Amino acid sequence: MTFPRLLDSLLWLFYPPRCLVCDRQLIDDEQFVCFHCLCDLPNAYYHRQTDNPLAALYAGIPQMVGAAAFLRYEKEGSVQTLIHDFKYNNNRSLAEYLGRMAVSEMADDGIFEGVDFLAPVPLHRKKERQRGYNQSLLIARGMSAVSRIPVRDDILVRKVYTLSQTRKSLYDRHLNTEDVFAARPFDDLQGKHIMLVDDVVTTGATSIACIEALTKANPNVRLSVFSLASVAR
Hints:
By secondary structure, the protein is α/β, with parallel strands linked by helices. It is built from 8 helices and 6 strands. It is globular and about 50 Å long.
């Protein structure tokens, strides 16, 4: 046995991984979340509804093709626990894992068909330095690993450092994202379908601001929004 594998075995013996949701010790083949809690995660699947409440946030945007979310985000719920862990506890592997799971669970619905690029919502350079990574980029990489859709993190840029939107009203959220993003024009994007990837959609203010910047620079594109989680609707 090599030293790294021996070290992993010792760590497993003395510090066995535990479910992030219920704190039960994980068994073989379980990652981050036990099978019981995994089955209990609240799926959103708004795209299966005739009146998709997530797509309604983007009504009137001519380039929009659709919108989908994998999980329902509820305050103090299991999804909040998972998202908090990869956003603030440096659990990068969890973000990619959930991205892979989302595509595996939702691919048969056809929402990824015809998508040319995945474009993660960017962080400001200052915030990315503080956190060490962009969680939306990690989610997109996990999605790409299963879907084989290329990730493009060079399209959008966050120009302005903004404070957290957690406690802001709907109106204030939109003000907080006004003129925050910019997009670069690319010839290879013309006529392409770009899926914007975010971790959580609440009011849609952030993704709408990204869409406005993106379509201003690249008007001849088709767009969809994918969020790992969306506030329950």
